[in-house]
Specification:
By secondary structure, the protein is of the alpha+beta class. About 25% of the residues lie in helices and about 25% in strands. It is built from eight helices and 13 strands. It has a five-stranded mixed β-sheet with strand order 1-10-2-8-9. Helix 8 links the parallel strand 12 and strand 13. The model has no long low-confidence stretch (mean pLDDT about 90).
């Protein structure tokens, strides 16, 4: 595969109500072709849709936040209303009039679809469209652009069931095509050149077209579901969540063996307490009549509650008040 990318330059400042398709077609150096993909930055989409807010940025971030994933000082990584996990909920104060901030569309795929449909009709060719925004990576420094919305494009290329060049079976290899296109387009457009559109040419023809506009084929398909998310909370935030919330968000549902794992994490001193689990309840029983057994029972009960919250295990924890003389 050989790709060609070029920026669409000379686009004026976008204002609320602007026709983005008209702005794009009016600045193209050559006509679009079947199979081309147009990458549009979310910033100009937000401006055209009038998603420009004046006032306190922190208040806007709070409004756009569904839940906090991680917090360090003033930095917040949150899940926003579009289902994206981003710094500051994707609220952007750059490349906009001082004193204003931009918010993202609530449904980026629907926005991308509307743009794609209008552009496809007016250009008269079969194209794909990616709506891009900038995001950080949990394990790496720096940022890259990702696809937050898409239409007319195969967003992932699953290689499951195929083999590599050595004959090894591939099971989970799934290149994120739309994200890779968005990242490549950002290299071409840059951050400070007022270049809201990039054309990408050379993708396999069957990756582009209206057959990729059915339900489940947009960029939302790239979002990892909550029950598959191994990093739904930051490390400190996970501790805070299980200490302060009875049913904290951000944890995967309990799987097989969860109760045994919670029991193991409680690490009871078996010379001082007995722990049993039956019918959705952990029973913690002090052994003997000493104060040490009672203190250990309280410690183990609290660890059981914390472990159950972390594993989203629906259980009760009881400390039996009747002391037993033996085990």
């Amino acid at each position: 595969m050989s790709l060609t990318l070029w920026p669409v330059t000379g686009v004026r400042e976008v204002r609320p109500g602007d026709d983005l398709v008209d702005l794009l077609l009016g600045r193209l150096d050559e006509p679009l072709r079947d199979g081309d993909v147009v990458v549009v930055t979310s910033k100009v989409v937000s401006k055209a849709l009038g998603l420009v807010t004046t006032g306190d940025r922190e208040t806007v971030i709070e409004r756009e936040t569904v839940r906090v994933v991680a917090r360090r000082g003033s930095t917040r990584i949150v899940r926003n209303r579009a289902g994206l996990t981003m710094a500051a909920a994707g609220v952007d104060a750059s490349n906009t009039t001082p004193g204003t901030v931009l918010t993202l569309p609530d449904d980026p795929d629907a926005t991308a679809y509307d743009l794609w449909r209008a552009l496809r009709r007016r250009a008269g060719v079969e194209i794909g469209l990616v709506l891009s925004d900038t995001a950080g990576r949990a394990w790496r420094r720096g940022q890259t652009d990702i696809a937050i919305g898409s239409a007319g494009l195969k967003v992932m290329n699953s290689l499951s069931g195929t083999q590599d060049s050595y004959g090894n079976a591939l099971h989970v290899t799934e290149p994120a095509v739309a994200d890779e296109i968005a990242g490549a387009a950002e290299l071409v457009a840059g951050k400070t050149s007022n270049t809201p559109f990039v054309v990408v040419r050379g993708l396999p023809r069957h990756w582009v077209g209206d057959h990729w506009t059915t339900a489940g084929t947009g960029a939302r398909d790239l979002l990892r579901p909550e029950d598959e998310d191994l990093f739904g909370l930051g490390a400190r935030d996970a501790v805070e969540a299980v200490l302060t919330e009875s049913r904290p968000a951000g944890f995967s549902p309990a799987g097989d063996g969860a109760a045994d794992r919670v029991h193991e994490l409680a690490a009871p001193d078996e010379d001082l307490v007995a722990v049993t689990h039956a019918e959705g309840t952990f029973h913690v029983t002090p052994l003997g009549g000493g104060a040490a057994a009672m203190v250990e029972a309280g410690r183990v009960a609290e660890r059981l509650r914390i472990g159950a919250a972390a594993y989203r295990l629906e259980v009760e924890v009881e400390v039996r008040t009747t002391l037993t003389a033996g085990r």
